[in-house]
Each structure stands twice: as C-alpha cells, then as structure tokens.
Amino acid sequence: MPMDDQADDIPQGLVVPGLGDESRRAALWAFLVVSVLSGLALVWPVYPLAVDLTPYVFGLPFSFAWTVGWLVVMFVALVLLYRTDAPAPAD
Fold first, then answer.
1. Residue 28: how many CB atoms within 10 A of its CB?
2. Neighbours of 24 (CB within 10 A)
3. In what helix (H) or strand (E) does residue 34 lie, and over which residues does it extend?
4. I need a labelling partner for 81 at 20 to 30 A (CA). Which of 9, 17, 24, 32 fits?
5. Ramachandran angles phi, psi of 64, nearest 5°
6. DSSP 87
7. CA Rg value for the chain
C-alpha cells in the first residue's frame, strides 16, 4: 500500500508543527533561551545573589529592580516573538 499521500499530514516540527522556516525556528529558540534564563534569574541559585545587594536602581531596591528588569526582558521577548510570527493567510 502506498503511503505517499499521507506523508503530507505528518507535522514537520519537533514540538511545534510547521517549523519549516529557519527564521521562525531561530526566533523560537531565542525565545526559549531568554525564557529559561529569566526563569533561572528569578529562582534560588541566582535570585539570592540579587537580594543581598543594597543599592537602589531608579529609586527601587535592587532586588525589586532585578525582578522588574527580568519581567521587562520577558515582555520584550514576547513582543519580538509576536512580531516574527507571519500573519495567517486570509480566507
């Protein structure tokens, strides 16, 4: 039985189907790296290093500025990921 007609129905991406475009794949990898780094920066091994510092950044304690800064980084990463997404073709 020939299976050639069903080969097009199989998703090509490992996690997200349809990752044929290299720029889209690179954008997803960059977002994944930023997400993991920001997650690690806000949990145990890294965050206690930021809590112990006493300077103020824009009038905020450093630990609060650290958290707000990583939230801004994640927001910018999400905006850039959204902008790299191609619009769906109109029906």
1. 17
2. 17
3. helix 22-41
4. 9
5. -70, -40
6. P
7. 20
pLDDT in tens, 32-43: 999 999 999 888
Q: Measuring CA to CA, which residue among 77, 89, 83 is closest to residue 37? A: 77
pLDDT tens for residues 21-79?
Answer: 677 788 889 999 999 999 998 888 878 877 777 888 888 888 888 899 999 999 999 99
Tokens of 33: 């790296």
In this model, does residue 10 exceed pLDDT 70?
A: no
Q: What are phi and psi of 46, to 5 degrees?
A: -100, -40
CA angle 77, 63, 33 (to 5 degrees): 25
Enumerate the domain spans of the chain: 20-84
